């Protein structure tokens, strides 16, 4: 330890943290240098109502691209500030508590977890979780049994109009991503008779079918998507779980049935562009949507938090019963979080579905990242 660190150690606890170093610009593609890993100090003392936590996992999600802009374009998302620590979904263990709801050793989670090794957080920001619900796989509380799973299940229940026995066909774009891979499986569990995924590599498509129970999958980077969709969905599309928007969605919408439903989950193909959310459909697609009375209401999981507890319990039950397959990849090191976030936005083509979730370990803590390849 250098002299500077010794002095700092006397003033408080030394921690590592990741801060926003620069902004990519609204139409820019992020670069690794947009983030900076730095050493910092944190007060030793925990105040009344506060909890000191050690970070175990952090989640990196597509919405964070908006938080890199000065104006996120949304009233429920705050921009990350330059040279300030980034934050998002996280999970960790309580080391010291001065809040009645928490005790040392509790596992806790928050949507506003700072990207740092140890943090003192207001207890009101934290929720206690029960590790047994996910067979001890704590990272699942940020994914399949967390916001991602909630998004997939509540999206389908609130906007999908799925009726068991109604012989419905569901199409999922971004199907190999965290939400998409769950949404397809949940589509079957909720009663769709056919589920077809759209993903970016043959390997992802193959895993969607062989492991996740999709009836078929289309590699949108190869061949004619419209033609494959016609062959694989001969009765048309009744429910479209849309994660990506853009050309893929236009193609799917053109094959949707009368009175069918779009679950407007996300529009990831548009996030490096300065366009409003949700981006308006091109005129031809909008005409089809209107003529066929296709619903396309905005879905935001945060609007359904009153259903969180019951929905998480349902997801945990499916996970325990083996009905929901979850894929995770482990990548270690807080230092890599900026680089992985970058990959998230750049979408490296060599990555596999196994990288749907990355986990980072740095010294004695682990960070989990959900990346989009
Ligand atoms: N509405 C809500 O409340 C809510 C909550 C959470 C997430 N979301 C949204 O849900 C979507 C998925 O999130 P996630 O956490 O599942 O993300 P993720 O794990 O990063 O997966 C996203 C997937 O999208 C695909 N993709 C990326 N860029 C694309 C492009 N330009 N064209 C086509 N496909 C592309 C990627 O795989 P390929 O290799 O297959 O292209 C990737 O598998 C995002 O749009 C996110 O904003 C919404």
Brief overview, please?
The protein is of the alpha/beta class.
Structural summary, described in words:
- The chain has 373 residues and is an alpha/beta fold.
- The protein has 2 domains: 14-143 and 326-368, Quinone Oxidoreductase, Chain A, domain 1; 148-301, Rossmann fold.
- Helices cover 26% and strands 25% of the residues.
- It contains 10 helices and 14 strands.
- The strands form 4 sheets. Strands 6-3-4-5-7 form a 5-stranded antiparallel β-sheet, with no helix packed on it. A 5-stranded parallel β-sheet has the order 10-9-8-11-12, with helices on both faces. Strands 1-2 form a two-stranded antiparallel ribbon.
- The two termini are 37 Å apart.
- The model is unreliable at 1-9 and 346-373 (pLDDT under 50).
- GO terms for molecular function: 15-oxoprostaglandin 13-reductase [NAD(P)+] activity.
Write the layout of secondary structure elements.
Layout: H1 3-11, E1 13-20, E2 35-42, E3 50-58, H2 64-67, E4 87-97, E5 107-114, E6 118-122, E7 127-128, H3 147-159, E8 169-173, H4 178-190, E9 194-199, H5 202-210, E10 216-219, H6 225-232, E11 237-242, H7 246-253, E12 256-264, H8 283-291, H9 308-320, H10 337-346, E13 357-362, E14 365-370
Parallel strand pairs: 8-9, 8-11, 9-10, 11-12
Antiparallel strand pairs: 1-2, 3-4, 3-6, 4-5, 5-7, 13-14
The structure holds NADP nicotinamide-adenine-dinucleotide phosphate.
């Amino acid at each position: 330890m250098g002299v500077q660190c010794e002095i700092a150690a006397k003033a408080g606890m030394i921690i590592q943290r990741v801060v926003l170093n620069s902004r990519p610009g609204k139409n820019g593609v992020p670069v690794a240098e947009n983030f900076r890993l730095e050493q910092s100090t944190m007060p030793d003392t925990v105040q009344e109502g506060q909890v000191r936590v050690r970070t175990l996992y952090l989640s990196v999600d597509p919405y964070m691209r908006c938080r890199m802009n000065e104006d996120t374009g949304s009233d429920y998302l705050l921009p990350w500030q330059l040279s300030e620590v980034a934050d998002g979904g996280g999970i960790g263990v309580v080391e010291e508590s001065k809040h009645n709801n928490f005790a040392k050793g509790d596992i806790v989670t928050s949507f506003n977890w700072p990207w740092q090794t140890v943090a003192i957080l207001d207890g009101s920001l934290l929720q206690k979780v029960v590790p047994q619900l996910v067979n001890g796989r704590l990272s699942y509380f940020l994914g399949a049994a967390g916001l991602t799973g909630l998004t997939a299940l509540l999206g389908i229940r609130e906007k999908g109009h799925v009726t068991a026995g109604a012989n419905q066909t569901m199409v999922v774009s971004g199907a190999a991503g965290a939400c998409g891979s769950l949404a397809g499986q949940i589509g079957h569990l909720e009663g769709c008779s056919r589920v077809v995924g759209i993903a970016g590599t043959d390997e992802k498509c193959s895993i969607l079918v062989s492991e996740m129970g999709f009836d078929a999958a289309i590699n949108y980077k190869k061949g004619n998507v419209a033609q494959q969709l016609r062959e694989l969905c001969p009765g048309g599309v009744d429910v479209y779980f849309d994660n990506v928007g853009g050309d893929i969605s236009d193609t799917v919408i053109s094959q949707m049935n009368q009175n069918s439903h779009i679950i407007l989950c996300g529009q990831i193909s548009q996030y490096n562009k300065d366009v409003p959310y949700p981006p308006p459909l091109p005129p031809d697609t909008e005409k089809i949507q209107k003529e066929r009375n296709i619903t396309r209401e905005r879905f935001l999981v945060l609007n359904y938090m009153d259903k969180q507890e019951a929905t998480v319990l349902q997801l945990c039950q499916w996970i325990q019963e083996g009905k929901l397959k979850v894929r995770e990849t482990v990548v270690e090191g807080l230092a890599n979080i900026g680089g992985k976030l970058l990959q998230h936005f750049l979408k490296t083509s060599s990555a596999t579905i196994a990288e749907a979730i990355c986990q980072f370990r740095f010294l004695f803590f682990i960070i989990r990242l959900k990346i989009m390849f």
